Amino acid sequence: MHRERRVFSAVFVFCALWGSALSVTRYSIPEEMERGSVVANLAADLGLELAGLAHREVKLDIFHSKKFLDVIKKTGELYIVEKIDREYLCTTKTTDCFLKLDVIIESPLRIFNIELGITDINDNAPHFRRDRIELDVSESATAGEKFSLPNAVDPDVGINTVKTYQLSASEHFTIEIQTGSDGTKYVDLVLTKALDREEHAVHNLILTAVDGGIPSQSGTANIVVRVLDTNDNAPRFDRSVYSVNVTENSAIGTLVMKLNATDLDEGSNADIKYSFTLYTSEKTQYVFALNPNTGEITVKGTIDYEDMKFYEMHVEAKDKGQHPLLGQCKIVVGVTDTNDNYPEITVKSYKSTVNENIPVGTVIAIVGISDRDTGDNGKMNLSINQQVPFVLHKSSDFLYELIVSETLDREKVPEYDITLFVTDGGRPSLSDNETITLHLLDVNDNAPLFPQSFYTIPVMENNAPGALLSSLTAFDPDLHENQYLVYFIIEKEIVNTSISMLFSINPENGNLYALKTFDYEIEKEFFFHIEARDSGVPPLSSNVTVHIIIVDQNDNTPVIVSPWRVHGSVVEEKIPRSTDKGSLVSKVIAIDTDSVQNSRITYQFLQVTDATLFSLDQYNGDIRTMRMFSYRDPRHQRLVVIAKDNGEPALSATVTIKLSTAETAVKAYSDMTEVPLEYDIFSELNLYLVIGLGSVSFLLLITILVTCVLKCQKPMPSKAAPPSRNSVISERNSTIADSTLVSNDAYWYSMFLAETRKGKLVVRQPVPKAGSRYIVSSLPRSTGLTETSDSAASTLQYPK
Q1: Can you tell me where the transmembrane regions are (predicted)?
Q2: DSSP 3-state assignment of 251?
Q3: Whole-structure pTM value
Q4: What whole-number distance in Å separates Cα of residue 516 and Cα of residue 734?
Q5: How far is CA 164 from the centre of its chain?
Q6: What whole-number distance in Å separates Cα of residue 742 and Cα of residue 778?
Q7: Residue 192's Cα: distance from chain center in Å?
Q8: Using CB atoms within 10 A as the burial measure, which of 252, 489, 494, 617 is most buried?
Q9: How far is it, in rounded angstroms, from Cα 774 to Cα 755?
Q10: What pLDDT, in 10s, does the model give residues 527-574?
Q11: What is residue 158's DSSP assignment?
């Protein structure tokens, strides 16, 4: 609904201050404008778009307790909310009266300074403090003598205040109008003709005060003049006007000055009494005291330079004659300013929370400063006495911008208490402070961080599936969803198996688990990566390398591979009875597929027929004679050897060796031929030799035939048959003393099998992985054996 408004805009002043200073827009309106009256169109005057103004927050900050004005956002008009009474708004008698206000517009933030000048209208009539004025005038008063009259008071200013006075018709009196330094009109009653009490004892006059308004207004007072008998000498001051200075906040009782008036009369007519005249304002009389007997003027109230910069006192000296006479003077008291007002800080606009990645140069707050003092006492300086990433930028004489000067980091400092200090230029200077608290909001600017970049985790073989291996926890200094981490394994294939089939990780806490049981003899280590990713937008992540080492366990029993025998059977060996002391009788070789300590094997006799006859090397398994055989020693010796590893607990295996002794001749011949497993020993030596020679010849013939047949056949791919016991016996003496089987992977391979097949010594065993190598060391040079290898066996090849 359209409302009709009366628009009063007497004067519009617009000042544009370029650079860092703020613009001040000035308007002028008469007082007592009706509510709803439009003062001005701010949108047009300030260059604002009405379309954008409707969506922005507009706030009017009026420097007064009442809200006289407001803004219509749709039209941008500044209108009257409450009638403005100039006399109420500006209590001092000055022609200039301003109402200061700030127009604050958000998004973006802009502040406009408005000064609204209030012009006076003639809405108050002059009036006198007293309706009846009584004067005592001596009949001896001469023409031209003046009598002070109370001046009329008019709250209006300028031409609307008291302009002149009018006196009713009288042949004895007239009036003389004077103008004070502040423009106030004073009136004196002037005697124009000598008085005759006997003719006319009382004169009744009417004094009228008229203002200069259009139309003018007036006020009246009755003057009663009583004619007294003569006292012809009035007191007199040496000067008509005195000037003196006093410091504000002077203590009560401080002497301002001492007046001294003289009277040429004698006696009671010369005794003088001092008093303030009616020209002296009540406020002045409240601040200063006048001793009626001595004429001393002292301080009796508070003197405030900011309230009143000077005072005028009109003093009269009256004698004590029967008809007292008086003299008058004017005293002008100037107030000297002192630094008695603290500067003040006002936060105009303020952001309490910002993102930690706020750009450098962003305005955080707009701060205003003020000081009621003047001169150097009113000069102010605003500063920050802290090491903080903020600076102050002076945008005008009394406004500062608080600006971000360095990059902020919430993880280092989550909030700032910024204390602003303002000091004035007085001596001593006064100061004030204001603290602004700024909270930083988190952004996802920190990637998760592991305590280590590389983790080595030992895992004992034969672990249970699902066993916890370790907890890999990363740390993210961000907050809320920016610090919520998710863990996962970066996929990687290992020998046709993905890493996720071997290990799993809890995505919430980083616990790493094994999904299968590991065997050290098959797999020894794994390398893979684990990534930790936060839940920010965009997410940040980091990864860590994990090295899983499978630790060996003593889970494999030593296996005796030499002397070879069918599982559970007894190994039978034949040695010559003439064997010398220290000769190698047999060699026990055991292997253990474990590693390091678990694969170190020692040998001991578990049982022995004659402990004085044989010795066993505990490290290499050599069985040697400790002395020569005697005729009393049994022909059959039984040895039980135990091979024990070094694990905890230790595992072991045993082998039983049955030794049979024979005469030297038989032994020498048996080195070239195979001999039967058992033969009887006859007491007659001749019969023994015949049988032995026949057996050797027979075996030699069989060996030649078998060798010819095997050379004519191709090698069979199928598993070879176990070698005959006699073949092992015949080969033992030439190879067992020098052959030692070891592994470059530092562990023994189980199920070792050696055989002679078509001129080849074949070493067979299960192979854990492709590319394994086995070394047969200390072979007799005379054999001429060479080594070849494949994934199934390592073959020692005789030369052609």
Answers
A1: 687-710
A2: coil
A3: 0.42
A4: 48
A5: 74
A6: 11
A7: 90
A8: 489
A9: 16
A10: 999 999 988 888 989 999 999 988 888 878 888 888 877 666 688 888
A11: G
